[in-house]
Amino acid sequence: MSISKKRYLLTFIDDFSRKTWVYFLVEKSEAFVVFKHYKAKVEKETEACIKALRTDRGGEFTSQDFTNFCGVNGIRRQLTAAYTPQQNGVAERKNQTIMNMVRCMLSGKQVPNIFWPEAVNWTVHILNRSPTFAVRSKTPEEAWSGIKPSVSHFRVFGCISHVHVPDNRRVKLDNKSRKCIFFGVSDESKVYRLFDPISHKIIISRDVVFEEDQRWDWEVCYNKEIVSDLVWEQDEGEGTGVGANEEESEANSTEESEGSETTDHVLQLKTKKWIMLIIVLLLLRMTHLMRKLMRTHLMISNHEDHQYGCKTTKVDKVSLRKKSPTLLIWHCLLTVIQFFLKMQ
Q1: pTM over the 0.85 mark
Q2: What single string gives the DSSP state of each residue in 202-267?
Q3: What is the C-alpha separation between 325 and 328, in angstroms, rounded?
Q4: Model confidence over 65-97: pLDDT tens digits?
Q5: CA-to-CA distance for 292 and 242, rounded, in angstroms?
Q6: C-alpha to C-alpha distance for 265 and 257, rounded to whole angstroms
Q7: CA R_g for the chain
Q8: Dmax over Cα atoms in the chain, in whole Å?
Q9: C-alpha–C-alpha distance, residues 73 and 66, integer Å
Q10: Residue of 170, 172, 177, 176 whose CA lies nearest to 196
Q11: What angle do CA 311, 313, 315 make, to 5 degrees?
Q12: Cβ count near 121 (within 10 Å)
């Protein structure tokens, strides 16, 4: 299925010149309407009438409306036998040739399969201007119109093309060209038919430069182009300054970011030092209180021993630490914290 929801192709081949016309259908039931358009077109060009129509026995060709229309306009029907496509060999071989060429075009430049109608149109355009054994010394287009066609506009399908952007469609610093993909020529004008993979639009232009040996990277380049295009649009919307203004703004932003990082680092160091200082003061206060409580306890015990005739002992700092493991722990913690502060 294509982007436009087309699922089928219908070809009409002139038996004399072997020129081919192709139409795309969403449903097979549209074949009757398409045939009426084709009949009006070719009869207007040649000023002649269609005498016979050879088709298979598909339901789209054997409907009552289709049969009645051919009967009213004097068109003789030629239907193939069931399961015998060789009776309509010209159309069958033409369809096989078209699909083989389309498959090669899509795979050669890695074009997604949803663009198969564009490849079919370009294939039919080439076949109508290529020699064939059915018409001697002429191409189908020359045999049909009597005018020798030109092939100087032939390019490789799916190659990279650079489309000129008109002056009224860009500003002074914008690019003068846009990268697109070649999808053939227009049926209405003498211009190229191109596809813009960024905006997903068909562009018609005659001012094009081709890189036929290059192809579009549909998996990588497509995402990069979208991201770069979005970033450029955001920059344009935010301001109009360029050159020195952009460099000054970038330098200022860099200096501000460096200054803010330095300030944050200094504040963090000061905060850590203040927290450690508060912890040390609390530990010192708790140590002082613990020593005071231990001295009070020792004085009370010495007084009781003196009343009962016990011998008193002299209490020094070493004995106090031996008798008080809690104070020893606090002393070790205090030493570790002081060492940590010196390292800071």
Answers
A1: no
A2: EEEES-EEEEEEEE--TTTHHHHHHHHHHHHHHHHHH----THHHHHHHHHHHHHHHHHHHHHHHH
A3: 5
A4: 999 999 999 999 999 998 999 999 999 999 999
A5: 75
A6: 12
A7: 46
A8: 149
A9: 11
A10: 177
A11: 160
A12: 21
What pLDDT digit, counting tens, does each position of 135-172 carry? 988 999 999 999 999 999 999 999 999 999 998 989 88
Name the residue type at position 286: M
Contact of 61 with 67, CB cutoff 8 Å: no
Average pLDDT over the chain reads 80
The per-residue pLDDT for 277 is: 74
C-beta separation of 341 from 301 below 8 A: no
Summarize pLDDT for 288-299 with one digit per residue, the tens.
666 666 666 555
Specify the amino acid at residue 226.
I
Taking residue 315's Cβ as centre, other Cβ atoms within 10 Å add up to 15
**Cα–Cα distance for residue pair 121/184, rounded to 1 Å:** 8
Neighbouring CB atoms inside 10 A of 309's CB total 6
d(CA 156, CA 132): 21
